Structure formats: C-alpha cells, structure tokens
C-alpha cells in the first residue's frame, strides 16, 4: 500500500514543539520532510532536557521522527542559493519563527511565490492579527490567552494549565489539517497559498465548550456545574469547574482502592441520566430509583456532593480497573486515571501503534507516541529522528540534483558548516 502523502515534499523550518508536531504528522503519512537546521546547532530541543550527555534529547527525538536533516546557513549567499533551489523542489514550507523572520531572511511570501507559484507556506504564530500579534508565545501562554487556564482548576484555587500540550501540539495538528486542505485545493486551482494557525486560536477551538457556557451564562446559572447545586452564585464569566463534565452530565474523579499510596488510584465517573437506575443498583441504593429526591436529574443537582460521596464509598472498595470492568457491563461512563507508566506499559497501545519502540543510533531504544490517526489504506510507521545534518549531501544530490563538484563548492563556501570563529588579534 502507498502512504497517503507519498510524493509530497515538505521544507521544514520548524523548531521546538508546535511546528515539529505538524511536520512529524505529515511525515508519518508519507511526506518527505526535509528539516532545515542551523549548522553546528540545529533545533534547540536537541540539547534541551537531555537525560543522556551528548545525545539528542527525547524532547527532540519524539517530535522529529521520519524526517531528513540538512544543515544550512541561510545568511550565507551560497546557502540562500541552496534554499532557493529547495523552494523550487518542495510543495510546502512550514515555519514557526517569530513574526517577520522569513522576511528578514530575504524570503517574504511574495518572493517565495515568485520562485514557486505552487508553494504552500504554512505558519504557526502565537496570535493572529491584533494588539498581540508581535508577542512571543509558548505553550502555557497560549493556554492562558486561549481561555483554557481561566476555566481549569477548582473555583477556590488558581487558574491551571493542563499537562496536555494543547497550545503547541494542538496548534500543530490544526496546521497539519490546513496544509492538507491547501494541498487538496491546489489540485483544482494549481496555486499555492498561505496557511496560518495561531496558538491562541487553536486553544480556543479546543476550549469551545467554555465559550458555549459563557453565552449560556447570560441566560441563567450553569446548572450542571457543582456550584449551582451548592447554592453558590455565578459571576459574569465562566468559572473553574473542577472535574465536572463539560458535556452537561455530572461527573467527578473518585477514589479507588489503594488511593492512600497510589496517586493515580482514581476513576472518572459520570452519572449519566439514561443509566441512573443501573448506577443505583451497582452502588447498593435501589430506593434512589424511585425516591423523588434522586429519581430525576433536576432533583439530583442540589445533592451531587452527597451522591458522589456515596458512589465513592463503592469505588473505594474496588481497584480502578475492577470498577471499570463492572461499570462497563452496564454502559456506565467511566475511565481509570492512567499514569504515564501504565500507558507506556499498555500492550494494547503497542499493538495499535499508538505507543511505539524506536531504535536510535546514539540513544538506543526508547518509546514514543505513534501516529494517533489510523488510515485503512495508508500504512504508518515511525522511524527514528535524524542526526544533525545527517542527510545534507543526500538531499543536495538526490533532491536538488547537484553534482559532486557543486556539493564540494557549497561545502567550501561554508554554507553547510558552523561559522568559523575568528581568532582574537
């Protein structure tokens, strides 16, 4: 079977997390991703959070699978010539530089379009046009400015950011969709275009249920939030809801057997109305099925603390996996709190390729996430990340068609090597 994006060539000017997430996903689907890196330095994450000295960090390897690396000094005149040839040969240029960096490199959109009218230029920025468009943005900044942090945590505590990288990786996923869409449109129009994903926009898209609740709040209290049942007034903005469900069905994280020593011995439990009678039977409260104080969802709202305390008495007698097995038999929505250790060791995730083992020439074997999107007619495999500049000569010859003499000339120019430090006089 042919991979879905075989024949698509990506010029990857991304670094850190948001951009590499995007280009890695495209590479998993078969695109030829050429990662352009600074000679002698490369993507800054190669050296960040290193757990083994002088070896590419997991931060880098887990975001740059299936790519080829070329080192190129784009300030060098010969380097600019090589970049121009790469633009001619590639379908998409992806970057997550700060605002204006491509222009200062001498390759604004207009020039790129003149070199290759079919080129798609895809960019990740912190903010879209507006008062903050020139500001630098990182993961947690995006979560805060996109509305996620203000609605995460408990109402009597600080706003919280989530461990899921919804600002960086989330925006990378959004950009990947934009690129594939632009590639499809190009099959009809024959033209390239610019694709932009702002991190603030991406986070807001993932926090859309909270924007929904902001509008509902104008028409009365949010009855599925715990504070309604506790008689606590709402303000003029969506509050932090703890572990309440965003889907309108009351839900909480409850202790399970072993919680005293295991920080992840918990289960998420939703008291979904259609299975309320089954919940009553499971926890040993059959009279609640007909009791007017508990039988209907509206009657239960002021009593959620009492109800979940009773459910927790039952969950504390079971491990999270035992509870899940029992509850799933009755279609009661629930989910164990899985630690990263449990996920890493989950054989079912290995079997589907969601967690993969990768062999690296200097690091050795390590585990990583695999492609989360499965296509029935497009195989997806995870191969190791490239060493810095590993494919430089290969790309110059096989992609650009340069001769040995031309490659030697480019090397001689210094365009592929770190700038030489001048000795002090």
Q: What is this entry, summarized?
A:
One of its GO terms (biological process) is oxalate catabolic process. The protein is an alpha/beta fold. 36% of the residues lie in helices and 13% in strands.
How would you describe this structure in keywords?
425 residues, alpha/beta, Rossmann fold, formyl-coa transferase, domain 3, 2 domains, six-stranded parallel sheet, three-stranded antiparallel sheet, 18 helices, 13% strand, EC 2.8.3.16, Formyl-CoA:oxalate CoA-transferase, CoA-Trfase_III_dom_1_sf
Estimate the helix proportion, in percent: 25-40%
Which stretches of 5+ consecutive residues score pLDDT under 50? none
Broad CATH class of the largest domain:
Alpha Beta
Domain count: 2
Question: How would you describe what is shown here?
Answer:
Helix 1 (18-28) packs across helix 7, helix 6 (139-145) crosses helix 8 (199-206) and helix 7 (168-189) packs across helix 8 (199-206). Strand 10 (355-360) and strand 11 (364-369) form a beta hairpin. The chain has two domains: 9-206 and 344-413, Crotonobetainyl-coa:carnitine coa-transferase, domain 1 (Rossmann fold, 3-Layer(aba) Sandwich); 242-332, formyl-coa transferase, domain 3 (2-Layer Sandwich), CATH 3.30.1540.10. The longest helix is centred in the middle third of the chain and has 22 residues, at 168-189. The N and C termini lie far apart (62 Å). It has a six-stranded parallel β-sheet, sandwiched between helices. A three-stranded antiparallel β-sheet has the order 7-8-9, with helices on one face. Strands 10-11 form a two-stranded antiparallel ribbon. The model has no long low-confidence stretch (mean pLDDT 95). The chain has 18 helices and eleven strands. It is elongated and about 85 Å long. The chain has 425 residues and is α/β, with parallel strands linked by helices.
